[in-house]
Amino acid sequence: MRRKRAAITSLLDSTLSHPIVTKNPQNPRTLVEEIYGLVRVYKDGHVERPHIVPRVMCTLPPELGVTSRDIVIDKFTNIWARFYVPKGHGKLPLLVYFHGGGFCVGSAAWSCYHEFLALLASKVGCVIMSVDYRLAPENPLPAAYEDGRKALMWVKQQALHESNTWWSKKCDFTNVFLAGDSAGANIAHNMTIRLCANRAHLNPLIFKGNILIQPFFGGESRTDSETFMVQPSGSALNLKASDTYWRLALPKGANRDHPWCNPCAKKSNMVEGKRYLPTMVCSSELDILKDRNMEFCGVVGTLGIEVDHVVYKGVGHAFQILDKSHLSQMRTQEMISHIKAFIIKRKNR
User: Fold this and answer.
1) pLDDT at 63
2) Crossing angle for the helix pair 143-160 and 183-197, nearest 10 degrees?
3) Is the dihedral of CA 14, 16, 17, 23 positive or negative?
4) Mean pLDDT, residues 209-230 taken together
5) What dihedral do alpha carbons 195, 200, 203, 209 form, nearest 10°?
6) 13 pLDDT exceeds 90?
7) Which among 95, 134, 101, 102 is positioned nearest to 117, based on CA atoms?
8) Average pLDDT of 316-320?
9) Is residue 1 scored above 80 in pLDDT?
10) Is 172 a catalytic residue?
11) What is the pLDDT of residue 50?
12) What is the pLDDT of residue 239?
């Protein structure tokens, strides 16, 4: 198992990612973009995503004490969600989670997310709704944001109709949190921006906070961590991969100072509605996004918004789902404890 995970991690090494125009003798299509092992984009619009990370069913070991099932949100756009419901009595906070993958890869069915979110639900004591959204480049931004909004509106309908389904009867809809890692954290952030503009339209849901894990932000000018932080073999993200993801995800003609990519480029974009949610930001010491995350926390803090910023030492991007080393497992347990403390602190306010 360890050898298999190492093979997956090595293929996720993005040092081989770069804009490319080439022809494969076995495939006459012209390849224009590639992140090695994850996504290939061809000139005619064809996209290939090798199945490097296994997709798994929603089964879990009974001893974990968590029930998981998949539910279709919108059959026309194929938006669905995987739910994780801990066993026990009483109502629990609802955590709406968006997976990472640079907006271009990833799934709520990926084994690494299934394992992490099942553990998170068990340890924190919350219901988790893991949203599977449309991917770029076939569906560039704002498609992922629209899917996020659609998922939240679907939850609103469940709460309004007081549905007594196997998962909703466990939810305390007055304690809802948005969360995600990498691109998923970017989605959670942009969902919050939209919420701030008009929170009333999602009543009776009451949102208590944001949990942003290594949020995927960028910009035209480089930060020190982007420029100087050398990524080891097996790193989940480097600068070339980051640039490729943004080229594929942003609308045509947009650059990396677009507010969807760089929320700090224009501070006014951060606070439309002037009521950004209290936020927890989880950064990694060896992540090229570290400086972007710190800048984001600084801007949020200067606006008078409550922000908890935790930096996990000695680990890199996506360590909690991709790195199974002893150090990463320790840091993952720390992260879960910090998330639990944030939810407990916020849910009664």
Assistant:
1) 96
2) 60
3) negative
4) 96
5) 40
6) no
7) 95
8) 96
9) no
10) no
11) 94
12) 95
* pLDDT per position as a tens digit, 71-86: 999 999 999 999 999 9
Query: Strand, coil or helix: what is 92?
Result: strand
Q: How far apart are CA 48 and CA 20, in angstroms?
A: 15
Report the distance separating Cα 125 and Cα 120, nearest Å: 8
In terms of Cα–Cα distance, which of 212, 176, 189 is closest to 142? 189
Query: What is the C-alpha to C-alpha distance for residues 35 and 17, in angstroms, rounded to an integer?
Result: 4
State how far the Cα of 266 lies from the Cα of 262, in Å rounded to an integer.
8
Q: What is the mean pLDDT of residues 157-181?
A: 94
In this prediction, residues 41-70 reach a mean pLDDT of 96
Neighbours of 220 (CB within 10 A): 11
Please identify which residue in the block is written with the tokens 């930096």.
311
The pLDDT score that the predictor gives to residue 200 is: 85
- Is 284 a residue of the active site? no
For residue 308, which of 190, 212, 191, 195 has the smallest C-alpha distance?
A: 212
Confidence (pLDDT) at 154:
97
Distance of alpha carbon 259 from the chain centroid: 17
Q: Which of 68, 107, 182, 242 is catalytic?
A: 182
Q: Which of 13, 132, 287, 291 is catalytic?
A: 287
Yes or no: say if 305 and 281 are a contact pair by the CB < 8 Å rule.
Answer: no
CB 244 within 8 A of CB 17: yes
pLDDT 10s digits, 148-157: 999 999 999 9
Q: Is 147 a catalytic residue?
A: no
Nearest to 190 by CA among 155, 216, 214: 216
Cα angle 101, 113, 185 (rounded to 5 degrees) comes to: 50
d(CA 239, CA 301): 27
The order of strands in the sheet holding 27-35 is: 18-24, 27-35, 39-42, 47-48
Pairing of the two strands 39-42 and 47-48:
antiparallel
- The dihedral built from the CA positions of residue 340, 342, 347 and 348, taken in this order, carries a sign that is positive
| Active-site entry in 189, 284, 317, 328 | 317
Which residue in this structure is represented by tokens 């931004």? 141
Mean pLDDT of 307-324: 96
